[in-house]
Amino acid sequence: MGGPDLNLLFTLDALLQQGSVAGAGRKLSLSPSAMSRALARLRTVTGDPLLVRAGRGLVATPRAEAMRDEVHRLVEDARAILRPADTVDLYRLERTFVLRTSDGFAETIGPALIQRVTEEAPHVRIRFVRKLDKDSAGLRDGDIDLETGVVGSAIGPEVRAQSLFSDRYVGVVRAGHPLTRGRMTAERYADGRHVLVTRQGLGLGAIDEALGALGLVRTIVTTVDGFAAALALARGSDLVSTVPERHTLGLRDAMATFALPVETEPFTISLLWHPRMEGDAAHRWLRQLVRQACDQVLRGEPGV
């Protein structure tokens, strides 16, 4: 008895991603009749209708919805495995890579990364774009080559991740701020006038929860959407900013940094990419350079 036709996985992935027989046919360069026959085979194999009529379109059944991400991951893994293990002439490579990062990463790690890229591949360009959410659609769609951040539930299950470094939140104030004198306590920290960074998935709520357990509440004077802005405001005023320590290493020059007087969990910053790029030699090279640049900067090594 023969095994299952694994080619059906590619057909099923196209149908579930496109949500239509015609759209899947265009993606796979198959006629609508050929796709209809393939859908009929998939229904027989799975014992489920998979896509059913709803008005003038098709909708996925509960089982199809449940298997959508897993099927897509399997297909992308297969494509990555079967892609030739090629090499790349870095000196002749002309390509622009898009990196989506939180503010602070480009300022802190960017110089070392650009230096390494320039030395090894002088015609490669790096474009940094700001990360405002955790949606991984840009990686799936190919608009983003690499991303950095904390792996969370919003990250697509197929996305690859590799740890870069661990980080923690710290308090930062201008040089000479009253909080730089004497012992830091939870009461003194909470009594300060704070600038709050508000952005999806930052995890800063744990700080206020820890303060709340002590009966303390921070006074929030203003809010911003990035760490660079928070530090800029704190640098020119008596505001207190709370930011990731290692992430903002390049932004805190001449400012005073102190450990938070409440317990908070450290978090891991990871490098994220889509599996379709797993076998791309130039992409592998860039991933390695990002890791090397992080190690160089965070260990305090001089430029190479």
Number of domains: 3
How are the strands ordered across the major sheet?
4-3-5-12-6
Please count the beta strands (DSSP E, at least 2 residues each). Answer: 12
Indicate the CATH architecture of the largest domain: 3-Layer(aba) Sandwich
Q: What structural class should be given to the helix and strand makeup?
A: alpha/beta
Shape from CA axes? globular
- Tally the helices: 10
pLDDT below 50 for ≥5 consecutive residues: which ranges? none
The percent range for helix content is 25-40%
* Corresponding CATH superfamily of the largest domain: Periplasmic binding protein-like II
The rounded distance between the terminal residues' Cα atoms is 60 Å
Task: Let me know the average pLDDT.
Answer: 88
CATH C-level category of the largest domain:
Alpha Beta
Task: Work out the strand percent.
Answer: 15-25%
Radius of gyration: 25 Å
Task: Give the arrangement of secondary structure elements.
Elements: H1 7-18, H2 21-28, H3 32-46, E1 51-54, E2 57-60, H4 62-82, E3 95-101, H5 105-120, E4 124-130, H6 137-141, E5 146-149, E6 160-167, E7 169-174, H7 186-191, E8 193-197, H8 205-213, E9 219-224, H9 227-235, E10 240-244, E11 255-259, E12 267-273, H10 281-298
Parallel strand pairs: 3-4, 3-5, 8-9, 8-10
Antiparallel strand pairs: 1-2, 5-12, 6-12, 7-10, 7-11
Helix pairs in contact: 1-2, 1-3, 1-4, 2-3, 5-10
